[in-house]
Amino acid sequence: MSKIPRHIAIIMDGNGRWAKEHNLPRALGHKAGVEAIRRIVKESNKLGVEYLTLYAFSTENWKRPLKEVNSLMKLLVDYLKSEIEELNANDVVINSIGDISKLPKICRVELDNAYEKTRNNKGLTLNLALNYGGRNEIVDAVKEICLDLNSGKISEDKITEDIFSNYMYTRDMPDPDLIIRPSGELRLSNFLLWQSAYSEFWFSNINWPDFHEKELKLAISDYQKRDRRFGKVK
Ligand code: FPP
Asked: Which value, in Å, is the radius of gyration of the alpha carbons in the chain?
């Protein structure tokens, strides 16, 4: 496995449909989705992926029934509590993107604990997109730039694409090389809009809880065959 993507981002879709297929409540579909997270984090770390961004909760997901929102928040807390020791032992760094100030306090406490514990690790960065929206991220960056313009910290002629990138949540990360979306949907759903300008996409019909190491390797080997020209000619 040469040419491993440095940054893989995944839209973890199809938990609800998986639950329906198995005659289970939606919450159990999300629970099965967490099992897929465990597998894919481990495998990504093993393969030498540097950044794995998982779309765990979008700015639009607040519109779901309160019961489902609560069960997702609980799964996040349970995941962090139960996995933190092993993630830490495997040198994983925990990070998040999105406005986590709107998450329940218990989630923020566990996240803070996980950042603190893992910040000096050197392995995979597990980047959780939580209350994340690509348009919201761009608007937030523009607001911050306006503040810096008004205070004289930067001047208009200094604003370049690179400078703009430094105002995004992903400021310390490379753009995603590969974006994966399972469950048969072919859209970006407000995920990494700025950062995906030159990402390669990989879609699959299986639902996220059925996503295994095999699918990750298939996506990567497909990616390795792509000719990335970034607008240039060879
Ligand atoms: C999409 O499936 C999935 C989500 C909106 C949530 C993903 C979250 C988790 C797997 C668990 C919580 C996160 C962590 C980090 C532990 P869907 O419900 O839209 O599926 P459907 O389209 O089939 O209904």
From this structure: 18
Q: How far is the CA of 70 from the centre of ligand 1 (A)?
A: 12
Q: What is the pTM of this model?
A: 0.97
CA–CA distance, 14 with 209 (Å, rounded to integer) = 8
Residue 1: pLDDT over 70: no
Alpha helices in 90-179 (DSSP H): 105-118, 134-150, 161-165
Domains of the chain (ranges, CATH numbers): 7-133+175-224 (3.40.1180.10)
Q: Which atom of ligand 1 is nearest to the CA of 58?
A: 5
- The amino acid that residue 145 corresponds to is I
To the query of whether residue 78 is one of the catalytic residues in this protein, the response is: no
pLDDT in tens, 105-138: 999 999 999 999 999 999 999 999 999 999 999 9
User: Which is the catalytic residue, given 61, 90, 113, 190?
Assistant: 61
Which of 11, 12, 59 to mutate for ligand 1's pocket (most ligand atoms within 8 Å of CB)? 12
User: What pLDDT digit, counting tens, does each position of 141-178 carry?
Assistant: 999 999 999 999 999 999 999 999 999 999 999 999 99
CB-based pocket (< 6 A), ligand 1: 12-17, 30, 33-34, 37, 56, 61, 72, 75-76, 79, 128
CA distance linking residue 84 with residue 147, whole number of Å: 37
Q: Is 222 a catalytic residue?
A: no
